[in-house]
Design brief:
About 2% of the residues have low confidence. β19, α18 and β20 form a beta-alpha-beta unit. By secondary structure, the chain is of the alpha/beta class. 39% of the residues lie in helices and 17% in strands. It folds into four domains: 69 residues; 96 residues, Nucleic acid-binding proteins (OB fold (Dihydrolipoamide Acetyltransferase, E2P), Beta Barrel), CATH 2.40.50; 187 residues, P-loop containing nucleotide triphosphate hydrolases (Rossmann fold), CATH 3.40.50; 157 residues, P-loop containing nucleotide triphosphate hydrolases (Rossmann fold, 3-Layer(aba) Sandwich). The protein contains 24 helices and 22 strands. The structure holds adenosine-5'-diphosphate and magnesium ion (MG). Magnesium ion binds next to α11.
Length: 691
């Protein structure tokens, strides 16, 4: 009976004709193993199904019933779609108000469907917009146990007769007939981590005997996914660490010159992270460190001092920032400090005069310039360094892995310091930062006065404007921010421009007011920003281009329009643009949202100034979004694992990954594991050394 190999093609299965196989292959399923890894979207627990006669309006239920009628209905106002189901104890009306066209194609008469939602009473029991799944014609068939897996099925599947029941039949046949499963873990690991073996895990996932076993199955399969990722990250780390030839042994002459000339005392946190960075640089493999510090925590001076260490060891330094404004600002800060120590530095951005650019390029190549600060322009091919020893990437989450690799490849395994003001929640940082060491500046400079945050309705704006005028009379400055201008949302730009024109001609007609937005050229932006930095412009109206890094200590009011449209982390970043000087600062959030949720979300901003707390809330409310470049570049391959809720599994997988790689860095004694890593990360193999 056990006649199948796990790698056999799916056409071996009784139910899979060539026509069905084609559809499977379109969904990246060609071998039996592929099909086994086609996981249910969810499981329906039959002990959790309520009979219609037992429901109480106002509560949520799972109900299974047969479709008696379905169709469109006209009400006084619009067309709705209604489905009536019966389960032998009563009937339930399901109503969709808008999405009728979509639903219509999914449900037909006599279908057996499972629905989930809140039951209400409108001339009978009803549910609006329930979650629903079409089940087999007869759920009581032999084929289903107490817990029913529900597979994701598109219309292409259904057209060739691939229904829930058919998938289950296929799974059954595979599990019965395959002689050996693709086990990637050793027996020892399986028992010491208390895992199901892979056969049991897959069988229980597709045919759960009970909820406990199902949850064990999930645990095992998630564990595998996290383990593969953690192994891959450990391999990246190893690859970087293996490679360096020239440690920075000395402090060199420049470090203390700069440190001693600072107008302030470094905070303890700054001192600690500088020691961590220097500790890395002394070693014979490259540093790969992420410096995380809330806005205003003083990362720039840490970068400057790190650069001085590299230059003190006869190396060049490249600093890359995501925008031209930010690069120019860094250039100014770096230049102020570096020139005291007679370290040469220059700025390299996209728009430069040809002659200037060639000049700069040749000075970088012959080593006359030690420190280069720039934008993406740095990763162009014609930028050649003589001896690049340290790469610093500011706002690293704005760059992808590829971009940072392009820059580091301009040296022979230079040290890498990435910086971010986005406080990455702990769970995420261990998932994504597996390949980096982490330094955190968890202390703001002492003289800082906390920013006061206030949410207002638009009717209070005139009061805020007169408050701003008073601040300006005191010699201080203000910023007004609008949500990001997307190509598809031209109206936002219009709104910002319109507001600017209006304020300029009415409320602030006697004040210098400037406008910055994403559609301006870098020069235009720079001109306005420079005027603002010199206090020639008193109020700046902007779209979110000022989000990152701008340092104008004299600005004390940050007014954010449509605050409800921003993520909390982003609001926190914006708020960090003020409160940088000696004066008390204010952040005013104009809430134009209409629901309670947006208000209670914004209230978190009033309550705390702690970036970590805000990041955690944001993660819960909005999901991981775009925290790290890895995800943008499709780096993480999760099917069922979850980086937010699987913290405990991730920690275990990480420990195991480190042990494995330490003993077997090429995974030569773990063939199955190696195969899986090579397969899952086939597009990123340039980052590791796995020959
Ligand atoms: P961020 O971490 O957001 O990049 P910056 O490096 O721009 O912050 O620093 C914000 C401001 O704080 C700058 O004006 C900087 O000169 C100042 N600063 C940095 N470190 C200290 C310190 N230890 N004491 C006082 N001011 C500091
Ligand atoms: Mg900064």
């Amino acid at each position: 009976m056990k006649s199948f190999d796990i790698e056999d093609t799916i056409t071996k299965l009784n139910q899979v004709s060539t026509k069905r196989a084609e559809v499977f292959i379109d969904h990246q399923i060609s071998s039996l193993n592929d099909l086994l890894y086609y996981f249910p979207r969810k499981h329906l627990d039959r002990s959790n199904i309520t009979k219609i006669k037992d429901v109480q309006p106002g509560n949520k239920y799972n109900i299974v019933g047969k479709v008696e009628t379905c169709g469109e209905k006209k009400t006084r106002f619009k067309k709705i779609f209604q489905v009536i189901i019966a389960d032998g104890t009563g009937i339930l009306t399901l109503t969709w108000f808008n999405s009728s066209r979509f639903i219509k194609s999914l449900v037909k008469k006599k279908d057996q469907i499972a629905v989930h939602g809140k039951v209400e009473w409108y001339n009978g029991f009803s549910m609006s917009h329930p979650e629903f799944d079409v089940l087999d014609q007869n759920v009581n068939s032999l084929n289903t146990g107490a817990i029913i897996p529900i597979y994701p099925l598109t219309n292409e599947f259904k057209k060739v007769g691939i229904e829930q029941r058919l998938i289950r039949k296929c799974m059954k046949e595979i599990i019965e007939k395959v002689s050996s499963f693709d086990e990637i873990l050793d027996d020892k690991v399986i028992s010491s981590y208390n895992l199901l073996n892979i056969k049991d895990a897959l069988s229980q996932l597709h045919f759960p005997e009970n909820l406990d076993l199902l949850s064990n199955a999930y645990y095992r399969l998630k564990f595998d996914e996290h383990l593969i990722l953690q192994i891959f990250l450990a391999l990246i780390k190893l690859n970087i660490k293996n490679s360096r030839s020239k440690p920075f042994k000395d402090i060199g002459p420049y470090f203390s010159i700069i440190r001693d000339s600072l107008k302030f005392e470094l905070t303890n946190a700054q001192k600690r992270v500088i020691a961590e960075i220097h500790g890395d640089m002394k070693k014979k493999y490259s540093m790969n460190r992420l410096l995380q510090g809330d806005v205003g925590s003083g990362k720039t001076i840490v970068a400057i001092l790190s650069a001085s260490l590299a230059v003190g060891n006869n190396s060049q330094v490249a600093i890359m920032a995501p925008t031209e404004i930010l690069a120019s600002q860094h250039f100014k800060s770096f230049k102020d400090e570096l020139t005291q120590a007679r370290i040469t530095c220059c700025l390299l951005v996209g728009k430069m005069k040809k002659k200037d650019r060639l000049d700069v390029l040749s000075n970088i190549e012959n080593g006359n310039i030690s420190v280069v600060i720039g934008t993406h322009a740095l990763i162009q091919e014609d930028v050649v360094f003589k001896e690049l020893g340290l790469v610093i990437i500011d706002e690293q989450h704005r760059f992808g892995v590829e971009q940072r690799n392009k820059l580091t490849s301009k040296g022979s395994n230079p040290h890498l310091l990435s910086m971010t003001a986005t406080p990455i929640p702990r769970t995420l940082s261990i998932t994504y930062m597996g390949d980096m060491d982490l330094s955190i500046i968890d202390e703001l400079p002492k003289n800082r006065i906390p920013v006061t945050t206030k949410i207002i309705e638009k009717s209070r704006l005139p009061k805020v404007y007169s408050f701003m005028k008073k601040q300006i009379d005191l010699g201080l400055q203000c910023m007004i921010v609008y949500p990001l201008v997307e190509e598809s949302e031209k109206s936002d730009l219009a709104a910002a421009v319109e507001m600017y024109e209006k304020l300029k001609t009415s409320t602030f007609s006697k004040h210098q007011i400037g406008l910055v937005h994403g559609k301006m050229t870098p020069e235009e932006k720079k001109e306005v920003m420079q005027k603002f930095q010199k206090n020639k412009v008193k109020i700046i109206v902007s779209t979110t281009v000022i989000e990152v890094g701008i340092d104008v200590p004299n600005a004390t009011v940050m007014l954010i329009e449509h605050a409800e449209r921003f993520g909390l982390t982003q609001l926190h970043q914006l708020r960090g643009r003020v409160g940088r000087g000696k004066e008390k600062s204010y952040c005013i959030l104009v809430n134009r949202g209409s629901n309670d949720l947006s208000l209670s979300r914004l209230e978190i901003m009033e309550k705390t100034n702690d970036g970590f707390k805000i990041a955690d809330e944001d993660l819960i409310l909005r999901g991981p979004g775009d925290y790290v470049g890895y995800q943008q570049s499709g780096f993480v391959k999760y099917k069922i694992a979850n980086m937010i809720s699987d913290g405990a599994i991730i920690r275990k997988a990480r420990v195991l990954a480190a042990e494995l790689i330490k003993k077997d860095p090429l995974l030569d004694n773990h063939h199955k594991l190696k195969e899986r890593v090579l397969n899952d990360y086939k597009n990123n193999l340039n980052l590791v050394n796995l020959n």
